[in-house]
Amino acid sequence: MSQLRPMIIGLTGGIGSGKTTVCEMFAKRGVEIIDADQIGRTLVAPGSIALQQLIALLGQDLLTADGSLQRQRLRQLIFSDPHARHQAEAILHPLIRSAILEKINESASSWLILAAPLLLESKSYDFADRILVVDTDETLQIERTRERDHCSEDEVHRIMQIQLPRTERVARATDLIHNNGDLANLDRQVAEYFERYEKLAHARQYTTPASDSTATVQRIVICPTCRKTVVWRETEPYRPFCSKKCQLIDFGEWASERHSIPAQSPPDEFDPDADDAQ
């Protein structure tokens, strides 16, 4: 029987939607939370390699006197300068992704919450099994963010502009929490989803067939050729390629006529660029 990786609930929402509060409510019920923002903060601790790379690209004025990162200043920079944002993302996103995968692979939970503000905007989180969106009226988003971060309405609008439009975020959700009311209403919705995820995780453990009688462990790893995520079992004899094409590219034999893949082969099995490739 296979030891399944946890069912991953990707939690996201627009700025000021109440993601942190929802995570806290799940955590009080014993749910494991992996917070991409918290991982990012750890990665840029004083003296870290990631912080040194950021400063080398974006300037010394992002540091405080004690060598810490001025987070508010960095946020203002990346939301006002697209080039700076892409530079920062190129440094931080791969590191955050690797740290998240490590935590998932070490988890003993049957399911967990992965909280990430850019869950839907980034391709780094394509391994989430379900998408839970915390939705809030935009007027409330602006009010809450201004009160929390002591920033101007223009700053909030700039942040909202690089996030998915609210309608698109809601359309891509598998699950939806409405946070336009009070905390009691929000907690009731969290309680309902907690029960639903408990049942889904339980059913998942007993409906996935075992490939053999030997216990195997599933892990989420990265295809060494195209860098897509792959569910891989420790007993598999080969490196975790997402497709035959990626395996042959790694072998340096893709161009060989002897190893070419027939044109009629299904793209989701062999083409790492296909939408359904895993």
What's the short version?
By secondary structure, the protein is of the alpha/beta class. Helix content is 46%, strand content 14%.
Q: Radius of gyration, Cα only, in angstroms?
A: 21 Å
Q: Can you summarize the main beta sheet? A: 5 strands, parallel
> Span between N and C termini?
22 Å
Any idea what the shape is? globular
Query: Roughly what fraction of the amino acids lie in strands?
Result: 5-15%
Helix count? 11
**Strands of the biggest beta sheet: in what spatial order?**
3-4-2-5-6
Structural class: alpha/beta
How many beta-strand elements?
A: 8
Mean pLDDT: 82
Description of the structure:
- The chain has 278 residues and is an alpha/beta fold.
- The chain has eleven helices and eight strands.
- A five-stranded parallel β-sheet has the order 3-4-2-5-6, sandwiched between helices. Strands 1-7-8 form a three-stranded mixed β-sheet.
- Helix 2 (36-43) crosses helix 5 (82-106), helix 3 (49-58) runs antiparallel to helix 5 (82-106) and helix 4 (71-80) packs across helix 5.
- The longest helix has 25 residues, at 82-106.
- The protein is globular.
